[in-house]
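Bumping my old thread because nobody answered last time. Still need a sequence for this structure:
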């Protein structure tokens, strides 16, 4: 859920905003003079974004993901039950 608030309102509601940001996919856009200036997200969302950016900026990781997707499309997969048997799970 995306919520827009002026900086003045955000200051008044800071603790309520912190609580609201605990909900998944929540964000608050703080505006100044009706223009978006700052986005508030939970720390977990922030960490997730950093991890995603790290993966997307790693050519080797991206190549592996693309190869995996190509394998799936081509049917080059091993059923999960077979993997569990091979690993004695």
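Sorry it took so long. Here it is:
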């Amino acid at each position: 859920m995306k919520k827009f608030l002026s900086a003045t309102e955000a200051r008044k509601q800071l603790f309520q905003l912190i609580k609201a940001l605990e909900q998944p996919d929540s964000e608050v856009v703080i505006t100044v003079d009706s223009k978006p200036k700052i986005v508030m997200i939970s720390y977990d969302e922030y960490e997730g974004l950093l991890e995603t950016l790290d993966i997307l900026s790693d050519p080797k990781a991206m190549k592996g993901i693309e190869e995996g997707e190509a394998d799936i499309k081509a049917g080059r997969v091993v059923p999960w039950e077979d993997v569990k048997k091979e690993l004695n799970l």
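The CA atoms of residues 10 and 16 lie 9 Å apart. Let me know if any region looks off to you.
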